[in-house]
Amino acid sequence: MGIDDILLFDETIFKNIDVFNPDYVPENYLHRESQMEAFAMCLRPALRGGSPINTVVLGSPATGKTTAINKIFSMVEGNSDKVVCVYVNCQLHTTRFNIFSQIYNKIFGHMPPETGVPFSRIYGSIMNYLQSEKKSMVVALDDVSYLFYIKNANKIFYDILRAHEEFKGVRTGIFAILSDIEFRYMLDQNVSSIFIPQEVIFEPYTIQEMFDILNDRTKVGFYPDVISDSLLCQIAEYASSVGDLRIGIDLLRVSGNFAEADASKTIEKKHLLDALQNTDSTSLKSTIETLSTNEKILLKTIIELDADDLIAGDLYKSFSKNTSTSYGSFDRMLNKLEFLRLIDTKFTGKGVKGNSRIIILRFNNEEILKLFEHIRI
User: Where are the domains of the chain?
Assistant: First the structure.
């Protein structure tokens, strides 16, 4: 099939290709019922005119945290006009002005002027609206660790949580979402005294749970009988091996595109293999980019040492030359790299306590070093 044929080919195996987009919120949200119930309990006081319960949402990347937040916010807004629900991606918006501009946009339907308007006026407009309309507000700060890294968190938390001191009757709360499960946040006393959160934990999906979710996506996104259970199981197993459900969803989309380019009404093994070849380096780069600075340094140290029998103790000696990390934190970082399927470890039974570990890199050294050329540490 030539390029013109591909572009003009009318038949499609996709019933709704949007189902495979990263921002798609599924109607059936599987295997997160307990977390959704916890969110509902935290938002319930706001529906009755009170303050939302502050919440810390914990979980590794690709465990459904953002989807769950957007899903529960949509449900709240679909059933009540008493609560303003605002989602903010803190990787993209890190300053007070930017974050409150997102809140302003949610309330008034447009962004405030970028120049000529002081922060106090934007802040006052938001709080006066909540006060006059007698509405509560909950702000979800996704990847909130970014605010702590640049030392903006305390002021932003204070602005949101203590608004009632200046604007009587205003009820506000924060859902703080942490994808870096080892991050330990610290708030000033005047903020921590009011930010006393519930914790909602998102455990990694099992292979069966990934299969169920991917199967549900295929039913909504493809026409019937486009992909077999056998191929779907292989995709679920691969997504589990890299610890990222999003990779499995993207594999469905890319495999479907390869099938259509072949004028095939079904996704075959060769289409999945083509998709895997297309996805591998993208998946690895995406995983590495989610690491903290010290975790990236640790991974790079493993690569640079390039030892067949790299002992954890020897690795720590090299790693600690570039960082001031304790051995306990180092050990947790190793566990995270193993959880993300970047390394394997095995106990040797040797050493003083009989528990020395050998570190085994799961990928080719040169492949990862090449990716590091495009990744900021």
Answer: 33-202, 205-288, 293-372
